[in-house]
Amino acid sequence: MAEPELGQLASRLRSFLIGHVCATGGHLGPNLGAVELTLALHRVFDSPRDSLVFDTGHQAYVHKLLTGRSGEFGTLRQAGGLSGYPSRRESVHDLVENSHASTALSYADGLAKARALNGEQDRAVVAVIGDGALTGGMAWEALNNLGGAPQRPVIVVLNDNGRSYAPTTGALAAHLAALRQDAGAAVCRNLFTDLGFTYFGPVDGHDTEGIEEALRRARALCRPVVVHVVTVKGKGYGPAEQDVADCLHAVGTVDPATGRPAPIRSNGARSWTSVFGQALAEVAAERADVVAITAAMLRPTGLHPMQQRFPERVFDVGIAEQHAVTSAAGLAMGGFHPVVAIYATFLNRAVDQVLMDVALHRLPVTFVLDRAGITGPDGPSHHGMWDLSLLSAVPGLRIAAPRDPARLRTLLRAAIDMQDGPTLLRLPKAAAGPDIEALARIDGLDILHRSTRRPLDVLLVAVGPMAEAALAAAALLETQGFGVTVVDPRWVIPVNAALPALIARHRLAVTIEDNSRTGGAGSAIAQACRDARVDTPVTVLGLPRAFIPHGPRKALLAQAGLDAAGITRAVRELIADPAAGFPSERPALSHPARRP
Ligand SMILES: Cc1ncc(C[n+]2csc(CCOP(=O)(O)OP(=O)(O)O)c2C)c(N)n1
Ligand SMILES: CC(=O)[C@@H](O)[C@H](O)COP(=O)(O)O
Ligand SMILES: [Mg+2]
After folding, report:
1. Does any ligand 1 atom lie closer than 6 A to the CB of residue 56?
2. Measured at the alpha carbon of residue 169, what is the angle toward residues 259 and 180, in degrees to the nearest 5?
3. Which residues are catalytic?
4. Which whole number is the average pLDDT over 434-455?
5. ω before 494 within 30° of 0 (cis)?
């Protein structure tokens, strides 16, 4: 295809991306920056015979368009529609579905070893990694292996646009900037050549033919090669190129003319993230020892209000969650109280650091996990549904789940006031609803609802934002003749010692959490009841032990039975099922607990 035709194709791809992604939402900036790069990849390599691995995968839309999925692009990130990331179910051209950054080079290392063992080294292994993802530790573990095996060819395409969301931080970013500025010096010696790679670059990331030439040369070398491609995030679309915040990294439905959401009548609802960000800035104004850490997601985790007021006390460590946690441990050892703001799903990779670098030393670090629970359009590797399961076993870690903005503010302060060990708050990806005031607060338990003049049939234990669905279910169950109590423990791990006694007063207890039901808060509560010899059957409602696909958050919660209808249905089924242990009579008061 001659250059003018290539240019026309790139232009058509850009127009397609802008039109579709503005309509469906998705990763606009990253994909506009990867148009020519992806064209070149598919012109030089023969996917799927050759393997193309995209790190994080949010920049793989053009790859999808070039592998036969343009017709379905109107379904992007919608239930049953195209995933916003590579998907093995969708195509043989797609390899890695995990949207957690910094993994591509490790996959490539494994693929290259497989090629060598199979005698298939003519099948290329190509990994595309962004400059942001390259700040993640796994990437350097992989580079160490790849560069140490000259006999195993892997082509690392570094898509360098100088940004993660914000400009990429740290010494690596400075090194790449130097390479971009001084091509002559770059070719002679740099980080990659020192690690055993041949280095080609910097290559203009919007010159398809130039990229192709570099890729062909890299392929011909049959050894580890880094092709340093310099791109512009949001290339070719003014609103993205000019967006100083994050080059329209990820957008909802926006006006293609402006890249901005259509003006909507605001119902005043704020996101949990913004409530947290403002509350933290207020605490930071009162407490000079409070510092904050982000892993390249300052704005998405709501730290910018604090960063604007106290820039010297907010640290962006790059896409390096494990380092973030242990660096926080160091800050705590130095006399500070770090608040580590991370999406719940991304903390999964730093469990050992929470356990052994923070909790073992009983350090006062507060973790604030945004996007806990079902997140929606980003699919299985983005739902924050394992934090309670992974962290409930951490000795000394206290975990709270605020049900509303008022409790978020209160619990954040309480967590930061705790100096004898780590604390953790988890927040959903949702608009923060109205405050839900308790009827009473007994032994640290918020009684949100209790039926009057009815037996104590069912106790609903709501974890955080599940309080709303629990209260709606209580209303439904009352219309069906049941007496219902709804309780919010606020601090879910360790289990409040008064909770088993409250459960003992009811004929049935149901815990409700937007975490996996395996090993989460409900499991801990059921265990606490067994330990306390409480006879009341405890049923745990939560997310299934499965990878949940992308789709609207509310619909996915309903499918998991975590809405009012699902909770009501579960209670009625339990009561109807003789094997469920629902006693015909209320249990004798083996625990003279105080009345709720
Ligand atoms: C472990 C992990 N932490 C954070 C994120 C959130 N995240 C998604 S894309 C992105 C920035 C990636 O920057 P880069 O690799 O340079 O790709 P670009 O968007 O610039 O093309 C981040 C931080 C993630 N996907 N995985
Ligand atoms: C690819 C990635 O990990 C993020 O960009 C993710 O899309 C963030 O999603 P939200 O911030 O919209 O929840
Ligand atoms: Mg980048």
Report:
1. yes
2. 85
3. 233, 321, 349
4. 97
5. yes
